[in-house]
């Protein structure tokens, strides 16, 4: 499993090599584990991190904030935030900021006991986002500045990503997006996804529901290609349930992951909680998100 391999490499002392080969990108991929839909189809408050093409807000704009926590054996945590504002004749303009870090990395020598100061390991990005609705098609672009620090090595640079989402009525939604295009080759990903409405009706008296089936793919990077299958159930407006199974290919090995999420809308607010099931008994990762319509 690629993320367990990342941790092993860190503890083995291969810090500078990972910094040169996209260690910061691996931290962002840890954050992706807590997205319970194919990343191209993400629509939560901070979804511009995965697909720049998001729906134009019905009001003045929207705000999103996500908090992420991985298992203690990995020790990564992070925050994602986005603010988008509706601009007549332009679509939406927005700002996004994200940071992922691993704490408690210490230097050792001949024993597992700490033998030096704490090793800093974090990656952060600040970005500008633009989106526009062209009939049934949403298009978007994001320009971001990235900084990664790993031990005594610091790297930075710019990326430019694009995304598109096409909706065929209420039945089919197709989406694709680039991720960190322009950074180191091992850090670049390509997302694709399709969602099909399979059923809609009444679950019980006066409670409408819609069931969606989803499929997606994450390609790129040095590790391999991830394939995703998922489903979603919207129960009226207040409640949304999502589930996703991912087959990860990592340097010739396959691993299966499961993520589930629930979203609850109350007025202008939506709270999202997702959980990644983890692999190899290393525990689960969690994300708690809040989106506010302005």
Quickly give the CATH architecture: Beta Barrel
Q: How would you classify the helix and strand content by structural class? A: mainly beta
Instruction: Please mark out the parts with pLDDT under 50 across 5 or more consecutive residues, or reply none.
Output: 1-21
What is the number of helical segments per DSSP (H or I, 4+ residues)? 3
Largest sheet, described in full?
14 strands, antiparallel, barrel
Indicate the proportion of strand residues.
over 45%
CATH superfamily assignment?
A: monomeric porin ompg
Spatial strand arrangement across the major sheet: 1-2-3-4-5-6-7-8-9-10-11-12-13-14
CATH class: Mainly Beta
First and last CA, distance: 41 Å
| Proportion of residues in helical segments | under 10%
Q: Give average pLDDT, whole number.
A: 83
Helix and strand pattern: HHHEEEEEEEEEEEEEE
Total count of domains: 1
What is the rounded Rg? 19 Å
At CATH level 3, the topology is: Porin
The total of beta strands comes to: 14
Question: What would you say this structure looks like, in words?
Answer:
The protein contains 3 helices and 14 strands. The chain is mainly beta. The protein has one domain (2-293): Porin (Beta Barrel), CATH 2.40.160.40. A 14-stranded antiparallel beta barrel has the order 1-2-3-4-5-6-7-8-9-10-11-12-13-14. A hairpin with a 3-residue loop joins strand 10 and strand 11. The radius of gyration is 19 Å and the shape is globular.
How would you summarize what this structure contains?
By secondary structure, the protein is mainly beta. The chain contains three helices and 14 strands.
